[in-house]
Design goal:
The protein is an alpha+beta fold and 261 residues long. Helices cover 46% and strands 17% of the residues. Strands 4-3-7-6-5 form a 5-stranded antiparallel sheet. The chain has a two-stranded antiparallel sheet with strand order 1-2.
Length: 261
């Protein structure tokens, strides 16, 4: 299997040099034409290569779309990271950045808490989409029809007594999140972990990422964590401004507000 994957991936740099026919691909890989054809067909099915009318193959549009999407996500992570670090230094809690891709919400950055207690979340892994605060923000921004379609396809595991039980409840919560512009997970995934999150928006106002602050009950209570919401929102706004180019780079206040939320 690993050899098959290696051969398939070796086709992509070949086609980056220009269109090639089946014989050229087979010769470059050192395989029979039938083997090369199977690999090309698989790549074609995934949109990574395209067969032209002259029967030569070139790189497919899906590959460029993936590259663009990856670049955008790397860009938002690069821009956001200094802001996430400053927020972490200010409050001491774990800070996450997440994006919505291919039906999943994934963490793309994490700054660990200064406390001995650590969260098990990892960069690159999907979040519990029906309960995570970052997921609620990202899904709430979808057009209504898409939002409803996504919600109805999801499963709703009851991680705790506070987990979202079904699509109807999830859609109702997403509507609230969309209206208020922030989200929480107060023991919905793990009873001992609370989270508050805010959206990062692009130049068109759409949510491109979501950032959050999370902490266990043994460090701060849910009510204490919620007092950080103004600081979390200012941090998200600062990232949004820099990412979209709307505003100069600014550093949010380093002292958490005690405003009510």
């Amino acid at each position: 299997m690993s050899q098959t994957v290696d051969r398939a991936l070796s086709i992509l740099p070949l086609l980056a040099e220009g269109p090639a026919d089946l014989g050229q691909v087979a010769d470059r890989l050192g395989v029979h034409k039938s083997t090369a054809l199977r690999l090309l067909r698989t790549l074609h099915e995934h949109g990574l290569v395209y067969r032209q009318s002259d029967q030569r193959y070139r790189l497919g549009a899906r590959l460029f779309a993936l590259a663009q999407e990856a670049m955008e996500n790397l860009d938002i992570r690069e821009i956001a990271h200094p802001h996430l670090t400053r927020l972490n230094e200010s409050c001491g809690h774990t800070v996450h950045l997440a994006v919505y891709e291919e039906g999943e919400v994934l963490y793309i950055d994490k700054v660990e808490s200064r406390y001995p207690v650590r969260m098990y979340s990892r960069i690159g892994r999907p979040v519990a989409i029906t309960v995570a605060a970052v997921a609620k923000l990202l899904l709430a921004d979808l057009p209504e029809a898409e939002r409803r379609a996504v919600a109805e396809k999801l499963e709703y595991p009851l991680y705790t007594a506070r987990s979202t039980p079904n699509a109807s409840a999830f859609l109702k919560e997403l509507a609230t999140v969309r209206e208020q512009g922030w989200a929480t997970d107060l023991g919905g995934h793990e009873e001992s972990i609370n989270c508050v999150a805010a959206p990062v928006r692009g130049a068109d106002g759409r949510v491109v990422a979501a950032m959050s602050v999370s902490a266990p009950n043994v460090v701060v209570t849910a009510d204490e964590l919620l007092t950080l919401l103004p600081l979390v929102r200012r941090t998200a706004d600062a990232i949004s401004g820099e990412y979209s180019g709307r505003t100069p780079v600014t550093t949010p206040a380093t002292t958490p507000d005690r405003d009510s939320v």
